[in-house]
Amino acid sequence: MSFDDLIDRRGTHSSKWDKMETYYGVSPDDGLAMWTADSDYATAPCVIEAIRKAADHSVFGYSWDHPDYLSAVQWWMQTRHNWAIEQDWILTSQGLGNAIALSLDVWSDEGDGVVIFSPVYHEFAHKVAKTGRTLTECPLQREGDTYVLDLDDAQSRLTGKEKLLLWCSPQNPSGRIWTPDELRQVADFATRNDLILVSDEIHHDLIFPGNIFVPMDIAAPEARDRTVTLTASSKTFNIAGQRTGNMIIPDDTLRAAMKHRLNTLDYGAGSLAINMITAAYSPAGAEWVDAQIAHLDGNRQIFDQAINAIPGLKSMPLQATYLAWVDFSGTGMSHEEIATRIRDGAKIAVSQGPGFGAGGEMFQRFNLATQRSRVIEACERMQHAFSDLQ
């Protein structure tokens, strides 16, 4: 199956398509869903075959221990990211949203401060609020077409109550890949302020040609006593609905605390999800990911060229992820007018920039993990909705 084969996801309990009218006022009948971060094309054939094999077996009883799964995770991290990890470092969670919530639960208390660098994945702030923690928001600085750190400014914003730092690498929503030196600076910042460093690296496989992603643990091994790395196959293989992620924790003390919490919650990963991920983290899965990146790269180039041709709009160059971060500040319009034009004129559901925190006020995020024809159609709709600027 091609990445360009159209699959109708409407009426399948897809949050991306079946909730777009509720959340954004765009009907799935004639609208395009380009908001939540999942893909519109089928997952890898090796994953589908694993599901078929499990169905043919026809028994879905209790399962126990998954050494093949742990070996597959090890193989993937070593092969794709040059990262050697031990099997006992790997704990599973019910997806990365759950892993973030668990991290807040285990390593902080109500009222404690949590540091984020914004604009950033909106669930960071949401989870902080839901768990009764206090947000310490440190804005990233805009330099041309990218974001950079200002750790002196970040230091000035700390209250002394902070216990944890939620870090996003590659950066969502901008698609920025942090350099090893920047990662070491962040790790040093966490060490100086005695913060547990939770590094969300869920988009680490979706790296465009010419760029290199380095895991936090490789860049700053000296901070292993406080580093927790969150990974998942969900974005890479479009299996987010299986709700399974990894918490990779080298430090014995940190890992023991999280393992104890998982035990008290009686949490264990579902066997079907484990089978799917084990199949995904394989040579066949790697070949499929490479083909997906080539498809996404084509989508990115088409989208950027069309959007950047509209006066006042700028799509920030992506190094990673399939999420285009578009700056509308050059239009001179308010966020409300921009959102209205996209909703009513283009009929596209997108992720609203203000939801990503400080610095996102004049941005919108577009999901490009879809069929090429839909990307082209989205570009045409955007050009029509902002035709008076051209």
How would you summarize what this structure contains?
With 390 residues, the chain is α/β, with parallel strands linked by helices. The chain is 42% helix and 16% strand.
Give the CATH level 1 class of the largest domain.
Answer: Alpha Beta
- The helix-strand sequence is HHEHHEHEHEEEHEHEHEHEHHHEEHEEH
* Domain module count: 2
CATH superfamily membership of the largest domain: Type I PLP-dependent aspartate aminotransferase-like (Major domain)
For the sheet with most strands, the description reads: 7 strands, mixed
Radius of gyration: 21 Å
Strands of the widest sheet, in order across it, are 2-10-9-8-7-3-4
Using DSSP, what is the number of strands? 14
Determine the number of helices (DSSP H or I, runs of at least 4 residues). Answer: 15
Helix/strand structural class: alpha/beta
Shape-level CATH architecture of the largest domain: 3-Layer(aba) Sandwich
Low-confidence regions: none
Distance between the termini: 38 Å
CATH fold descriptor of the largest domain: Aspartate Aminotransferase, domain 2
Proportion of beta-strand residues: 15-25%
Report the mean per-residue pLDDT as an integer. Answer: 96
